[in-house]
Amino acid sequence: MQEAMFTGLFGALTAEHRMNNVANNLANVSTVGYKRDMLAFKDTMIQFAHDQIMEPICTIRSKPLFPEPQLAARVRLAVAKTDYSQGSMQVTGNPLDVAIAGEGFFRYQTPRGEFLSRNGAFVLDADGQIMTKQGWPVLSDGGGPITVPPGTRNIHIDNEGRIFADGDEVGRFAVVTAQDERNLEKLGGNMYRVRPGTNVEELDDAYVNGALVNQGFLEAANVDVVQEMVAMIEVHRFFEATQKIMQTSDAVDKEAITKIGRGR
Predict the structure, then answer these.
(1) Range list of H helices, 97-177
(2) What DSSP designation does 129 have?
(3) Domain check: are 97 and 174 in the same one?
(4) Do 186 and 257 share a domain, yes or no?
(5) pTM score, two decimals?
(6) CA dist 57 to 26, 61, 80, 113, Å?
(7) Residues 45, 150: one domain?
(8) pLDDT digits (tens, 9 = 90+) for 76-132
């Protein structure tokens, strides 16, 4: 019964992995611009070598040379990806809150290099630079920081990401997108980077692809709380089933060992 025990064990480990994913999505339901993670699993069938000969050779032996085919299932992670679908727009009225409608990411300059994010909750530092709340400069399409002159009373941001300070253009947000989003690696802090080994040139100007910047809005996480709660219940029931498989397998093994020991 070891095969049943291992099948239950792999199923339980899979359930644990999926539960961590669901919990992470729910924990970020209020994170600005968060994109939920999705997982899919499949059974990997292990076929033993002796299964390849299905019929006995009747002219040589009257009994099958090999036992009947035996297939054992092992649950494996099949798909792990990020859902980049649009989150809902939430009105804030803050002139430094901006949300991207469509594909695209803002570019940040961090101590570890340039990162991408959908989080458009920005602030001004003491020098007038537009920064993230973590203190990282938001980059312009020219690659440098964006600075608002001291004493500016009115900051206006149009749909093409251009920033105007009292009517004068002072910069434009660098909003970029990847030709293949699978080349983006999700990091902590709701940020992304180009996956090592891929080309930075694959980042395109998102405005060309129809991305719009909306001032006074923030993008909510694209997490459906009800859907994630249903998934959590489903994973819990699945874990209970795998536990039952392991308990039953253990009980059968103990009984078999006991009876064999008595027979001797």
Answers:
(1) none
(2) B
(3) yes
(4) no
(5) 0.77
(6) 59, 6, 46, 67
(7) no
(8) 666 778 999 999 999 999 999 999 999 899 999 999 888 999 999 999 999 999 999
